[in-house]
Amino acid sequence: MKYLNKTLFTAVTILLFISCKEQQKESAGAEAPQATTEKIENTISIPDAWVANRVKKAKERLTKTEAGKVVWASMEAHGGLDTWYKNGPLGMRFKYQPLDGKTPRDSYEVVDTWNNRVVHTSIEDPESKFGFTGEETWLKAKDSTTFNYDVKFWALTPLYLMGHPFVEDGKGVNLELLPETTYKGKKNKLVKVTYEPGTGDAPDDYYILHFDAETNLLTATRYIVSYPAYFKDGGHNPEKFMEVGELIDVDGVLLPTELKTHWTVDGKPGEYITKIEISELEFKSDLPTNFFDIPEGAKKL
What we know:
two-stranded antiparallel sheet; alpha+beta
C-alpha cells in the first residue's frame, strides 16, 4: 500500500510538472506574436506585396520602349528596384560644396524613397532641422542663417541628384532614347528624362542619363534647373554635367559616394563648379512611424 501511494504521488507530481511546462510554452507562444505586431505597428514598413506590385507596374511601363528598357536594365544593374524599396528609408550625409564661393549645404538626411518624405539635420547644430512630409515643408532652426538657402527646393534635391535610375520609376516620366556617345573612352547609352505638366515643383526640368553600354551602370547625369521660384519668367540655368564617382554596395544597392558637377560644353564636362561628397550611407528599417511628421516647435513654410 505504501509502495502504491508513493507511486501515485510520483505520477501526480510528474503530471503537474508537465502541465506547468505546457502552460509556460503556451504563454510564451502567445506573447511572441504580440511583441512582433507591436514592432511592426510602431516602425515604418512597406508590405512586400505593395513593393512587388509597384515594381511590376514599373517594369511593364518601362519595358514598353527602348529608352525604358535601358533605364530598367540600369535599375537591375544597381541592385534592383525591389531592393531599393524593400530596404526602407535611406540615410546619408550630403555635402554640397560650390567652388565659386556660393553657399555650401551640409546635412545628414533621411529620405523615405517610397513616399518622398525627408528630414534634414544640420551637421553643425543637430537641433536644427528641416523636412518635407509629402505635403508640407517645415523648418526648425535657431535663426535664418542656420540654413542659408531655399530649404523647400533643397528638401528632395539630393535624392534627385544621386538616386538615378531608381527615381525614374513613377508616372509622369517621359523617356527618350538619344544617340550613343563616348564618355571616358567607353560607349554610353543616353536617355533623356522629361516630365508631364504638374509633375513635382519643377516639371520643366530634364535629365540626360549616361549609362555604360556594357555594365548598364550610371556614369553621368546632365541636367537643368527650372525651379519657378528661381526663374519666375520661365527658363532655366545652363545645362550641368555631373560625373558619378565611386559606387559602393549599400545593402545590395549600388550608390555613389561622390558627384562632380561641371558646366556642359558640347555634351562634355567643362568647368568644374561643384563638389558633392556622399557619406554615412545606410538604409534604416527601424524608424518610428512619426519620424517624418512635423516636429513640435517647427514652422510650416
